[in-house]
Amino acid sequence: MGVPAEVIKNFSEEAVFNIIGNTIDNNSAAINFGCTFNPLDKLIEAFEENKKLYERLVEAKKEKVAFLEKLLSEKK
User: Fold this and answer.
1) How far is CA 23 from CA 7, 26, 27, in A?
2) What is the rounded distance in angstroms from the CA atom of residue 69 to the CA atom of residue 1?
3) What ranges do the domains of the chain cover?
4) Residue 15: what are its φ and ψ, rounded to 5°?
5) Quick one: residue 20, left, alpha or beta (phi over 0 = left, psi -120 to 50 = alpha)?
6) What is the pTM of this model?
7) Tell me: the pLDDT tens digits for 8-59?
8) For residue 25, what are the contacts with CB-CB under 8 A and spacing of at least 6?
9) Strand, coil or helix: what is 51?
10) Comparing C-alpha atoms, which of 74, 53, 75, 56 is closest to residue 64?
C-alpha cells in the first residue's frame, strides 16, 4: 500500500482526528449538518394531512352510502 512501517508503528487516532479537524472548516457553507426544518413541525404537518385525508374518505363513504340508498329506494 506504500505506507512505511514506522508510520504504522507510530499510528495514533488523535493524530488522525487532528488532521480531520484541521481539514474540515466547521464554519464552511459547503459542509452543513444542521437541519433546515423542525422535524416536529413536519410530523405535525403529516398528522394534519392524514386527518384531512381521513375526513375526505369518510365524506366520500357517506356520499356512496347515500347514493346506494337512493338507488335501492328507487327500485322498490
Assistant:
1) 20, 9, 12
2) 80
3) 5-75
4) -65, -40
5) alpha
6) 0.48
7) 777 777 776 776 666 665 555 455 556 677 888 999 999 999 999 999 999 9
8) 31
9) helix
10) 56
